Amino acid sequence: MTECLVTGMPNVGKTCFVINFAEYMGLKELKFYIRQLAGYTSVRRYSPEDARNELISEESNFTREIQSVKLEIPSGKVFKELEIIDSCGLSEGIHPDAEIRLAMAQTIRLIRESNLILHMIDLTNISKEEEDILLPLDRMIMNYASLEKNYAILANKIDLHSAKENLKILRENFISKKIIPISALYWLGFQEVKRLVLNYV
Questions:
Q1: Which among 12, 79, 90, 115 is least surrounded, fewest beta carbons within 10 Å?
Q2: Distance between CA atoms of 155 and 184, rounded to whole angstroms?
Q3: Which of 18, 11, 15, 17 is nearest to 186 (CA)?
C-alpha cells in the first residue's frame, strides 16, 4: 500500500483536505487509523460531517496524532490502495507541549519514510516583500522532501481572491516543482490531486 503524507505548518488545512478528499473519493464512512504515541494503532469511525466537526479547528496544532484513512482508487479494471496520512503541523523552535513535540517527531520520521509527500502551503502566507517568498519552515520541508521523494505542493485557499496573485508568484519561483492549486474546503483541484496520486500508487 502506498503511503501519502500530507504535511506542512499548523492551520494550513491538512485535516480538512484529508477528510474532504476521502469523501470526494467516495467514502461514506471514514475509518481513521490513529497511531498512538504509546506504539499501538486505534481506529475511530466518523461520517464525513462528524469528522469535520470533531477534527477540524482553528486552534494551532489541534491535530496531535498521526491519523490516516485508507482509500481504494479505481484505475481501469483494478483498484489501487492508498493510505493518506494526516500529520501534526510542524513549527519552528521547541514546542512547550511534550505531546505536540512527540507528534512533530513522528511527522518528521514520516517525511523520511512515506512514498509520496503532499506539502500543503497556505497561499495567504506567501510573502511578496521578503527575499524568500516561503516561510522558513516551508522552505525546509521543500528542500528536504523534494530531493529524494515523490513530492508536490498543494497550494491551499485558491478560493480566496487574494490567493490568485500569490499562486502566480509561487509558480514563478518554483518552476521545477509540481504545484496543484486547491481549496481543501470547497474541493477545488481534487481531480488533479487524484491524477497525481494514481501515478504513484
A1: 79
A2: 9
A3: 17
Are the C-beta atoms of residues 85 and 112 closer than 8 Å to each other?
A: no
CA 128, CA 20: separation in Å to the nearest integer? 30
Q: Could you tell me the pLDDT band of residue 148, with boundaries at 50, 70 and 90?
A: confident
CA distance 44 to 34: 8
Separation CA 51–CA 31 (nearest Å): 10
Say which DSSP state 25 is in.
Answer: T
pLDDT in tens, 169-197: 999 999 999 999 999 999 999 999 999 99
CA separation for the pair 21, 187 (Å, rounded): 7
**Distance between CA 111 and CA 162 in Å, rounded?**
30
Q: What is the total count of domains within the chain? A: 1
Cell of 201: 500508487
Q: How far is CA 35 from the centre of its chain?
A: 16
The residue range of the domain holding 168 is 2-200
C-alpha cell at 113: 519514510
Helix, strand and coil in the chain, % to nearest 5: 35, 30, 35
List the one residue out of 2, 4, 3, 1 whose CA is nearest residue 193: 4
pLDDT given for residue 108 in this prediction:
92
Assigned C-alpha cell, 156: 491551499
Question: What CATH number is attached to the domain comprising 42?
Answer: 3.40.50.300
Q: Which residue has the higher pLDDT, 81 or 61?
A: 81
